[in-house]
Amino acid sequence: MRQLVAVAFEFQNMSSIIITSAAAVDVDMILAQKERIQLGHLIKQLLKAMAKHNISYEMFLHPSVMLVHDKNRGGLGLNWNEVHGNGKKIIKIGADLDLLQQSVCFELPTEPKKRDIKIEFNKQLVKSSCEMLAPLSGKERFCSVSTGHTVAFCRATSGRCITPEDDLKDDDGRLDPVALTEKDESFREMVQKGWTWTVIPSFVEDRWPEIPELFQQSFNAKNNVAAKSTELEAACLMATHARLQRERNPGAADIDWDACIKMAAAVSYTHLTLPTNREV
């Protein structure tokens, strides 16, 4: 039943909800405190206010409908190495559905230009990932601001994406959804069915553009996914990406170093440059 509800909801949104004056006052008052209270407390107050005024809602959603918000990680979106690294931890210790209780996402905008920006942002992430992120299917209706790396790994598993993690690879160097889910019922449910999200309508972002940024700052800090890498670590990440390019396209004349640098930049804010003719 939950799956049917989620599927039916794919083609709907809650943009017809009107922000009442009382709701606007409450949210404005909370945002006015953002310099005076801890970010985590601010987010809790925002979620409580949006639930109180029937703005946000809970929905059981399949990973296939989820993109990452373009404000996530300060505009970097996702780091695909962390997607697979976190996935390795899930496979090793077992999935814990309780850790997904704070999953929050925004509806995709209803306004075409704004919607296209978010879709194109995710397409570029996929393009740069050297097949480590699942391509868009057209089913996507939401953008995550928390648990984004987890849902991206679920999408990558379903899509049999390439993985840099040796412990997760099949003989083709890809994720095998059958092998990775057969011993873990919870992870199988995550991949095949999904889990419950708190959904924030797109008009909230239109009315308060800073809210997605505040959410991602809070959740990323809490989950420590914004940790910076050293230059050596960034260089190692680029080498990994270059190796995957070679494995995928053994006949290619050159390495796409721009793609390698973009991948490393998703982990590190260090600006690195490399000669385009450098060999691995």
Report on the architecture of this protein.
With 280 residues, the protein is an alpha/beta fold. Residues 1-15, 224-229 and 267-280 have low confidence and may be disordered. The protein is built from twelve helices and five strands. It is 48% helix and 8% strand. Helix 4 packs across helix 6 and helix 6 crosses helix 8 (185-192). Strands 1-5-3-4-2 form a five-stranded mixed beta sheet, with helices on both faces. The chain is globular. The protein has helices at residues 2-9, 21-31, 39-52, 80-93, 112-128, 148-158, 177-181, 185-192, 202-207, 211-223, 231-248, 257-265, and strands at 57-61, 66-68, 104-107, 142-144, 195-200. The chain starts with a helix and ends in a 15-residue tail after the last helix.
Radius of gyration: 19 Å
How far apart the termini lie comes to 51 Å
Strand order of the largest sheet: 1-5-3-4-2
User: Strand portion, in percent?
Assistant: 5-15%
Share of helix, binned: 40-55%
> Tally the helices: what do you get?
12
Averaged pLDDT: 83
Order of SSEs, N→C? HHHEEHEHEHHHEHHHH
Largest sheet: 5 strands, mixed
Counting DSSP E segments of at least 2 residues, the number of strands comes to 5
List low-confidence stretches: 1-15, 224-229, 267-280
**Global morphology:** globular
Structural class: alpha/beta
